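=== RUN LOG ===
request id: a7f3
mode: sequence -> structure
chains: 1
length: 198
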Amino acid sequence: MSFTLEDLPYAYDALQPYLSRESFEYHHDKHHATYVTNANNLIKGTEFEGKPIEDVIVAAYGKNTPIFNNVAQHYNHHHYWKWMKPKGGGPIPGKIEKLLVDSFGSVDKFKEDFQKEGLAQFGSGWVWLEVKDGKAAIRKTPNAENPLIHGAAPLLVADVWEHSYYIDYRNRRADYLKTFLDHLVNWEHVEEMYDTAM
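=== RESULT ===
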């Protein structure tokens, strides 16, 4: 089984004015594509070949850094595209809203904490909403790391590597994160990930 770079789930210009066609052409077609190519080349003939991607990520972490980095980055990006949609943000499905309120006190507090952690991630990385033992939490991770290696299930992510937002936001990571939550999040994919996790 090899990894595949799937097409974006929307047109390249579908998230304008928040993320541009140029941004996706670089981020999806170049950055993500490179991770897929590298992952496929690195995994051939190893103990990880043919295993589910989640299993490869967990097993390779701390054992085979090149495989972990490329496979995890493929996984992270694969879902990152799906966690956005045209006319995103908006109403949150009831069960997810309840999870956020139960875990953070309110949806606004979740958004505040998510943005704060995203800004606090030094250098390249990600900010996640994750669930573990029925409780949601926010985790920032460096480089390719994700909640799977910590025994948690990812529900949502914002990519805070500079290449994910620099074309459209330059160094304004705070503006990018606020826009992501207010106008881009695909809460239905969050709900799908939650249902799978539970």
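=== NOTES ===
The two ends are 27 Å apart (CA to CA).
Residues 169 and 176 are 6 Å apart (CA to CA).
=== END ===
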